[in-house]
Design goal:
globular; alpha/beta; binds adenosine-5'-diphosphate; Rossmann fold
């Protein structure tokens, strides 16, 4: 069998320790990993696409170095399955947090299987310490001046603080 290629898609607005934990697990399953950054303008992301990509890339060097797996951070704006086909992905990686993620993911997998039955979706769970982390909640805490250091890498925490200061929050 050839090289196994994985795709981990998300908005990553911003990357959290939960995402990093999933990526550290994903590299054990594939030879090459793409992190697909959904442009998602209609979701109204706090960070621009460039900022989200940059924050991801900053974190990936260490994981790529440790695992020997090539990690490529790549924005996408098309249908997930179309993007997965374009990069020749064999598997799509998703993280599962709580029961709340399940319903949505369950439906997505069903639809994606109908679109391309050769690409499997694999679900991974983060370490218990990181399971409750969600980008949305991290942003809410940062906005209200709370301590976010336990949820995101140091450099991301600094960017969040700066972002809300600049926004006058
Ligand atoms: P979305 O915008 O689709 O929610 P995110 O960028 O927040 O995507 O997350 C991308 C993927 O990472 C999703 O599969 C999500 O379930 C997963 N994920 C996010 N945070 C965690 C976490 N703390 N533990 C496990 N999986 C997570």
């Amino acid at each position: 069998m050839g090289k196994r290629i994985g795709l981990y898609p998300g908005t990553f607005d911003p990357i959290t320790l939960g995402h990093i934990d999933i990526i550290e697990r994903a590299v054990k399953l594939v030879d090459e990993l793409f992190i697909g950054v959904a442009i998602n303008q209609d979701k109204g992301p706090l960070f621009s696409l460039d900022e989200r990509v940059e924050m991801l890339r900053e974190q990936m060097d260490t994981i790529a170095g440790k695992s020997g797996v090539t990690i490529t951070v790549k924005p996408f704006d098309q249908l997930l399955m179309t993007f997965a086909e374009e990069i020749n992905a064999d598997i799509i990686i998703r993280g599962l947090r709580a029961v709340s993620d399940f319903e949505y993911e369950f439906q997505m997998v069903g639809m994606n299987q109908a679109l391309n039955e050769d690409i499997e979706t694999v679900f991974l769970m983060a370490d218990a310490r990181y399971q409750s982390i969600a980008s949305r909640l991290v942003k809410e805490i940062a906005k209200l001046d709370g301590d976010i250091r336990g949820f995101v890498p140091q450099s991301v925490a600094e960017r969040l603080v700066a972002k809300y200061k600049a926004n006058g929050a």
